[in-house]
Amino acid sequence: MSNKTVYILGIESSCDDTSASVICNGKVLSNVVANQEVHAKYGGVVPELASRAHQQNIVPVVQQAIEQAGITKHDLNAIAFTRGPGLMGSLLVGTSFAKSLALGLNIPLIDVNHMQAHILAHFIEEEGSKIPPFPFVCLTISGGHTQIVKITNHFEMEILGETIDDAVGEAFDKSAKILGLPYPGGPLIDKYAQLGNPKAFKFTKPKVGDLEFSFSGLKTGILYFIQKNTKENPDFIKENLHDVCASIQHTIIEILMDKLKNTVKQTGIKHIAIAGGVSANSEIRKRLTTAQKHWGWTTYIPKFEYTTDNAAMIAIAGYLKYLNNDYSDISVTAQARLKVTE
Fold first, then answer.
1. Topology (CATH) of 136-302
2. What integer pLDDT is reported at residue 1 of this predicted model?
3. 43 or 173, higher pLDDT
4. CATH value of 7-125+306-323 in 3.40.50.720, 2.40.50.840, 3.30.420.40, 3.30.470.20
C-alpha cells in the first residue's frame, strides 16, 4: 500500500438506486444512497423511470458524498463508476456523469464491474471486519444473479457454477408476489419466515448439476401449491402465511447451502463469502455462521449496507484498480451485460 492518501469517488447507477461514496485508502468516508420509491406501485423496476430518477438524483448524491467525506472535489484522485451489468439507461447516467467529472477535474477514470464490486466489498477496511484470504469462494446472490465464484486475487475470478434460469432474488420476489405481498417481497418473506415453521410444507428441490442452480421449477411448484390450496380454502394464505414463507425460505436456503457444501468438497477451499442483495437474508447469514462450527469453514458476511447496490463497493474496487494503475480510456462504454470475469 502506498503512503500517500488516496481519495476515490465511487458512482453506482446500475438499477434503481443512485449512490455515491468516497473511500480513503480502503476506508469508507461516505456512502450515500438515493432509493427510487417510484417503482413500488408497478411491482418491479421500470427502466425508463429509473434512468430519469438517476438524472435527478446524481448531482445531489455526489455532492452529499463529497461533503460528508469532509473533502472537496479537488482532493479526489480518481473516479470509479459502474460500467455494467445493469439497466442500460441507468448505467448511461452514471457513466456519462463520471466521464464528465473526471475530464473536468483532469483525474483518472476507472470502470468497475458491478458483480466484481459486490465481491470486493469484503475488502473495505472497517473496525472488526475480517478480510478473506486468497483463494476464497464467494456465493453471489441477488435479484439478477446467482453464482459461485472462485477468487484467486482481486481481479482474477472464475465462475464455478451459476443458475441455468432464474436468480435467487427473483425466486424470493416472485414467491412473494404469488402470496400477494408487495414489491420487493424478498425481505417480507424473510420477516414472516421467522414466525413460521420451516418444515410445515415441502417443496421439491431442482435436480441440476452439483454447482448449478435452477429456480424456475421451484417458482412454478410454489404457484401450483398456492393455487391448489386456495381453491380448497380461500383463506389458506392468510391462515398459513408464516409457515408458507418459512417453508419457501427454508427450501431456497437449503439449495444454496447444498451447493456451497459441494463447492467446498470439490475445491477444498473453506473460506466462504457471500455477496449481493440476498446476502442480507437473515437465514443464510445464520446458516453460514453455524457452518463455521459444524464444518470448519471460515465465513465472511458483509455488513447490511454493503449487500444491496451501493457505491462503497464501487469505490473499493476502484481503489484496488487505482493501486494497479488500471485506468479506463474516456471512450469506455456502459455494458448492460457483463460477466463477473470480464
1. Nucleotidyltransferase; domain 5 (3.30.420)
2. 47
3. 173
4. 3.30.420.40
